[in-house]
Specification:
130 residues; alpha+beta; two-stranded antiparallel sheet; 66% helix
């Protein structure tokens, strides 16, 4: 009985380690993708470590800043996906910004909500590292 308990424990440990490795690899791929090519503001926020709900609100604020600064997106794409991972009812056009453009937007972004201030700091650090 002792040996099977040890094996079960090893399997459980390995399973959690593999899951952790998959999450870290996915995060690395996402951040590398954001550095290589223009992505949406919400995607850059998620790659910077912001949770999805806060990323959506921060992206809305950054879009307002882009309109105020007159900064046009680098590229646009049509998508059927939503930020939450579900399906949208209509095809939408998504504006993609480079990391340098996101850095300019975050520098001019002045959020009042505490979680958006934290998100802006994370995005700013992410843009500066790129």
């Amino acid at each position: 009985m002792q040996k099977s308990a040890i094996r079960r424990e090893h399997r459980t440990t390995r399973r959690t380690l593999r899951a952790t490795l998959r999450r870290r690899a996915a995060a690395t791929r996402l951040s590398a993708s954001c550095r290589r090519r223009p992505r949406s503001l919400a995607t850059v926020a998620i790659a910077a470590g912001v949770d999805r709900e806060t990323a959506a609100g921060t992206a809305n604020g950054l879009r307002s800043v882009a309109k105020r600064l007159g900064l046009t997106p680098t590229a646009s794409a049509r998508t059927r996906r939503t930020v939450a991972g579900g399906r949208a009812h209509q095809t939408r056009t998504v504006s993609h910004y480079t990391v340098a453009q996101v850095g300019r937007l975050v520098a001019a972004y002045r959020p009042r909500k505490a979680e958006y201030v934290t998100a802006a700091a994370l995005i700013s650090a992410f843009a500066a590292a790129a």
